[in-house]
Amino acid sequence: MAVNQRPSLSVRDQAIWDRIHLIPFVVRIADDKLVAQEQLLALFHLEMSGILNWALEGCLKWQTEGLKKPESVVEATDEYKTDVGPTSLWIETRYTGNQQHTVPTGLLFDDFIKFARDNEIQLSETFDARRFGNTVMKKYKSKARKLNGSVAKHYFGFRLPN
Predict the structure, then answer these.
(1) Can you give the pTM of this predicted structure?
(2) Domains of the chain
C-alpha cells in the first residue's frame, strides 16, 4: 500500500508491523532545481552504463547479503509504531522475555498508569486493571503465584525499572 498519509490502524499486532515499512521522504527538490522529464531522460541516457553497473552491483550485493531495511526506514517505522501504539514503548522498556522475571499485576498496572501520565498518553476514564489485562497485556503469560505469604497474579518476562 503506497500512501502519502500514515494509515489509521484498527489492528496493531505484530502481523501488521511485519508489513508496514515507512519510507521517509526527507529531500524536497527546489523548484529552481527541477529538470524537465525530457532533459532528465537525456541525462540518464548519457549515464546509462554507469546506472547499469550500479544496478548490477546492487543485484550482486542483494544475492550475497539479502535485502535489509535501511536504518532510516527502521527508525521511521519505529517512530510511527510508538505514535500509534504508545504502549509499545512501555512494553519495550519493561519486557525482558526472561520467564524468571515476574511482576505482580497490580504493580505492573500502577507502573503503566504512571508511565502513561508521565508521557501524556491519554487513557479513557474507564481504563482500569481489567482493561489493562485484556488489552495491553493480553498476549503475555500470567498466573497466580505465592509471594511473601499471599497469592497474587504475576506476569512473566517483565521487570520494572528501578
Answers:
(1) 0.51
(2) 14-78 (no CATH), 86-156 (1.10.10.10)
